[in-house]
Amino acid sequence: MADKLWHLVTYDVRDPKRLRQVAKLLESYGERIQLSVFRCRLDRVHLEKLHWELNQIMAEEDDLLVIPLCASCAAKIPRHSTGDQSSWAEPPPTFRVI
Predict the structure, then answer these.
(1) Are 36 and 1 within 8 A, CB to CB?
(2) What is the widest separation between alpha-carbon atoms in the chain?
(3) Please, what are the averages of pLDDT over each run of 10 residues along the chain (98 residues)?
(4) Structural contact between residues 52 and 33, judged by C-beta atoms closer than 8 angstroms
(5) Would you give the end-to-end CA distance of the chain in angstroms?
């Protein structure tokens, strides 16, 4: 199974119709942090799929920024940030290899 990393995804879409489409798509991939900022836990395949789907919606005039966060960086998200930040930590393994 591929490793999943947290990604911060932020965008600036100039057309209201495309803006709604981008927001709806990102809601299916992650959690909204602010109006145009999402956090998504993605492996490489899902990240590529997300990029492809966003490319189908967004226009040349729109902006997209995707920032991968390593596990160490995600764990350093301040606890005093607004909202529940506890889920930034790595989830416990679902099984053990013996």
Answers:
(1) no
(2) 53
(3) 86 97 96 92 96 97 94 72 58 65
(4) no
(5) 17
